[in-house]
Amino acid sequence: MNPIAEANFADTGYSYTLSLISGKYKPIILYCLMEYEPVRFNEMQRYLGKVTDKTLSLHLKELEQDGLIHREMYPEVPPKVEYTLTERGRSLMQVLDQLCTWGNEHRP
What we know:
The protein is α+β, with helices and mostly antiparallel strands. It has one domain: Winged helix-like DNA-binding domain superfamily/Winged helix DNA-binding domain (Arc Repressor Mutant, subunit A, Orthogonal Bundle), CATH 1.10.10.
């Protein structure tokens, strides 16, 4: 029997990892935090370029729910919110670092 006949991509670790970092901005958000944490919302928005408040907010909430980033809100006026990587998020940085290394070695 052909092994792929019983295989299911959704059951792989690769699929799970991609589900956490999929999307146009999630890998960039994680990379930004790896390089510059802590980062405030407006700083992140400037770093990403043309991203709407709604889109950035949604991606940050998803990353927080997945345990990759931490949101710290300070009781100030105006509100101050900073984002940092969690230990789980830091453990993913080795993977993103390898993507960066590969890109630097293979870009024209």
